Give the backbone structure.
Amino acid sequence: MPRRGTMADVARSAGVSPTTASFVLAGRTDMRISDAARQRVLEAARALAYRPNVTARSLRTRSSRTIGLVSDTITTTPYAGEVIRGALEAARARDHLLFITETGGDPAAGSGLVNALLDRQVDAVIYAAMFTRHVDPPPELDGGRVVLLNCLAPGRNAPSVVPDEIEAGRTAARVLLGAGHTRGIWSIGGRHALPATPDGWFAGNERIRGLDEALRAGGAALDGVVECAWEAADGYREVRALLAGGRRPGALVCATDRVSFGAYQALAEAGLRVPDDVSVVSFDDQDFASWLRPPLTTIALPHSELGRVAVELILDPGPLDATVHRVPMPLRVRDSVGPPHENG
Amino acid sequence: MPRRGTMADVARSAGVSPTTASFVLAGRTDMRISDAARQRVLEAARALAYRPNVTARSLRTRSSRTIGLVSDTITTTPYAGEVIRGALEAARARDHLLFITETGGDPAAGSGLVNALLDRQVDAVIYAAMFTRHVDPPPELDGGRVVLLNCLAPGRNAPSVVPDEIEAGRTAARVLLGAGHTRGIWSIGGRHALPATPDGWFAGNERIRGLDEALRAGGAALDGVVECAWEAADGYREVRALLAGGRRPGALVCATDRVSFGAYQALAEAGLRVPDDVSVVSFDDQDFASWLRPPLTTIALPHSELGRVAVELILDPGPLDATVHRVPMPLRVRDSVGPPHENG
């Protein structure tokens, strides 16, 4: 963008030294500069579309008013674009820009990208993951101002911002208990999202923990947990198999709205109505959750809020520590949960 | 990120002048520097985690190897995250970073964001829209190196990269003609995506143009065009009304996969099967298109390719002109189009 005047252009046009022009444009009044010269500098700056060069300024102030965001594939995941929106809005509200880049899921790319950001003098880095998990951030970030977004790195001295999945599990339990369900409750998806994660996903483990805990507190329990991957085809296949095996669940807690999408298809094929015959509750609140018939009751991933909280932690003054910040997941009540089909 | 050594630190540690250190680290061999001094500088640079300061370098070379991307709400739209992926990958392949920011749909924010990018010395700017449309880019971009992504600005001397919607309309026609449909063909969604756009959307106008043209070339024609917004609820409502009005379409061309989603629901309620009774083809290829039963035949928005082409235009040497680059929209053949229910 070569058409803007530089400080030297402004000084030349105003007939003053670059030092004088720079003092005028910095608004300094502690130097003796005539009003006429001051006026000529301001007019020349306007005529030449001069703007202060943040790049040069950052060399002096050591602040570029820029935050780097390195993620795996967050920017290109339909489920998590809202993370970026929340971060962008919070950064804009405090006059910062976001530098967004991503590894595309290749861990080896992390160091290179972090170095590229550091080369551009970012003030701080948000290190983000698409789904909540443990990560090993590149060593280049050690000692810098870093917030972990949707991920955890035990042993590193950086705060994490994650969805409150335990409480979300409790919320799902309370929704079902509130409608009168105490048995015939199945988890579809469980902890594992197999085959990718033999130890369970963070979200899966924490939700089942909260779900179990709150069901027991209400005098109920899960009838069963079906471990499967978390896509629509998995929900369809597993619920179909459950019904074919003679099970007749009264309520399904699906790991994702995508699993619910497939569960709806399997229930419809079997002639079962939602919620008259089977109640369904899930997690995420993807766009199609409200298009399903009946619209799906689900507990939303707080994407925008995750992004906002991460930026505010970064920009608030003071040191950062390894606190884990849990962001509430709001319940979206729609029409997929009703009273049990058979009472007692 | 204060922990990296500067060039001055490296020079001090190696016991050479900053000029000598700088020549060694720039790889210059046209200066007389002893091998021992050269070795000490390289070791000090390694020990101090020295990296060249791109910010300082950009003041000399006038290149920051950084591209700014300003969009309305593209980064936070589930349908267009792939645009960012394509742009990021192309930028990375050529050792550039992307600076992503967005107006959040507020046109007044455009100038401020462009200035913020120019302040950070971006080499070029990609100006992007969520859905293809005419835009009025901020005047700050005039004269700079600019590519318009998914938008058009007649009168500005900048290239545009848009999906080839006319050809996509022709493709939809050929899919139906190939299956034997020549009548009972309805467009659901048409040109307008009412009520937002009284003059029609770019995508709507161009698709209908291509659809009409190719149907006529095949001896067929549209039976009707239903103008409506392009969401799932609109597809459901309009197809339901069409059937309730006694129409019995043989094939639906839906403006988006979301409209198809609603159309499927209305057809199922009326006891009509896809594709046995009614064929459905649409545009976009959103994730759920392949989860529907039957999986939906659709013509994909080439999001990743749009982003890639925009970055490559920016980075290829040579002047930019106002050419409109049309990126092909690939057909995804699935199971929602079959032969007409009634022959003849």
